[in-house]
């Protein structure tokens, strides 16, 4: 999935960041997978920075050692790493210190109610503040409206994805 980010000029203009790839749990434990990725990047001359591998928050907790090793290998290859679905089951930042993620994707279940529920807004604000403090960019999942984009900008979320940003598009239409 591509993630779009607001430009510094206006919220209405968006730019493409790259492809975020959701990983299956089995891929995290497959010691041959990082080499497979490196070989494909080299073979097809794809810049590694255009790929970001998403690891779910639950996999980060359950497969902590495997995730740390996988994330290091992907970062060493030039790829990015994101932790997705963050905050939907509570918030714990401790595992993030070891993985050194580039992005923290805030769970869409919190984002969907951010305009109606002060507790969700406070949680997203806290996640944003802590992520910035430890040097991780934030991405809001499931952004559905311009009003949500404005609220997320107000509380310093860095990036957004969802139907309120862009509808799905064919790959051949991207640069």
CATH class assignment: Alpha Beta
Distance between the termini: 14 Å
- Helix/strand order, N-terminal first: EEHHEHHEHEHHEHE
**Poorly predicted runs:** 1-13
The structural domain count equals 1
Number of continuous helical runs = 8
Neighbour order of strands in the largest sheet: 1-2-3-4-5-6-7
- Judged by helices, strands and strand pairing, the structural class is alpha/beta
Radius of gyration: 16 Å
Assigned CATH superfamily: EAL domain
CATH topology: TIM Barrel
Rough outline: globular
Largest sheet, strands/sense/barrel: 7 strands, mixed
The share of residues in helices is: 40-55%
For the record, the CATH architecture stands as: Alpha-Beta Barrel
Integer average pLDDT: 85
Strand content: 15-25%
Number of strands: 7
Describe the model.
Residues 1-175 form the EAL domain. Pfam families: EAL. It comes from Georgfuchsia toluolica. This is EAL domain-containing protein. One of its GO terms (molecular function) is cyclic-guanylate-specific phosphodiesterase activity. This protein is an alpha/beta fold and 175 residues long. It has one domain: TIM Barrel (Alpha-Beta Barrel), CATH 3.20.20.450. Helices cover 41% and strands 21% of the residues. The chain is built from 8 helices and 7 strands, in the order ββααβααβαβααβαβ. Strands 1-2-3-4-5-6-7 form a 7-stranded mixed sheet. β1 (2-6) and β2 (14-22) form a beta hairpin. The longest helix is centred in the C-terminal third of the chain and has 16 residues, at 118-133. The radius of gyration is 16 Å and the shape is globular. 31% of the residues are buried. Mean pLDDT is 85; it is low at 1-13.
